């Protein structure tokens, strides 16, 4: 995931991350050209979902070379083609997946698919989503 400066079309650089409240994560990004700053704040549910998938985020979890608070997820996702194997999704389940915030949706999908496979479910439907939701504590 990258944030681009709208004015300069330059990748924003991660300046700092912190946990202002229990379970949240804030990340401050700055454009290296015009010094415009933006901030991102995750709510406790988003942070918990990402962490339940085994992704290390925030201070100590970020890859210092990548300077991304979600870098723990990138090696698995970067350049990965969609798998033709694994469980199939029903239309209703895919519709519910669209309600998950964009920046964690690929990780959530991967976690749900892993859960379904571990339970021997060849099809991900709304019942499987509810089971996975309970397992992830959401």
Commentary on this structure:
- It is a single chain.
- The protein is of the alpha+beta class.
- Helix content is 33%, strand content 16%.
- It has a three-stranded antiparallel β-sheet. Strands 4-5 form a two-stranded parallel ribbon.
- The longest helix has 14 residues, at 105-118.
Task: Give a short summary of the structure.
Helix content is 33%, strand content 16%.
What share of the residues does DSSP label as strand, in percent?
Answer: 15-25%
Total number of strands: 5
Largest sheet at a glance? 3 strands, antiparallel
The low-pLDDT segments are 61-83
Question: How far apart are the first and last residues' alpha carbons, in Å?
Answer: 23 Å
Query: What string, H for helix and E for strand, traces the elements in order?
Result: EEEHHEHHEH
Give the class from helix and strand content and strand pairing: alpha+beta
């Amino acid at each position: 995931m990258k944030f681009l400066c709208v004015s300069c079309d330059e990748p924003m650089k991660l300046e700092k991350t912190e946990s202002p409240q229990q379970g949240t994560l804030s990340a401050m990004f700055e454009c290296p050209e015009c010094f415009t700053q933006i901030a991102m704040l995750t709510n406790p549910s988003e942070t918990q979902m990402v962490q339940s998938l085994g992704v290390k985020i925030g201070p100590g979890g970020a890859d210092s070379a990548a300077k991304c608070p979600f870098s723990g997820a990138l090696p698995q996702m970067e350049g990965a083609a969609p798998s033709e194997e694994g469980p199939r999704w029903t239309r209703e389940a895919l519709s519910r997946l669209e309600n998950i915030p964009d920046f964690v949706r690929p990780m959530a999908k991967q976690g749900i698919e892993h859960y379904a496979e571990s339970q021997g479910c060849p099809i991900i439907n709304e019942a499987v989503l509810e089971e996975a939701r309970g397992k992830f504590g959401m």
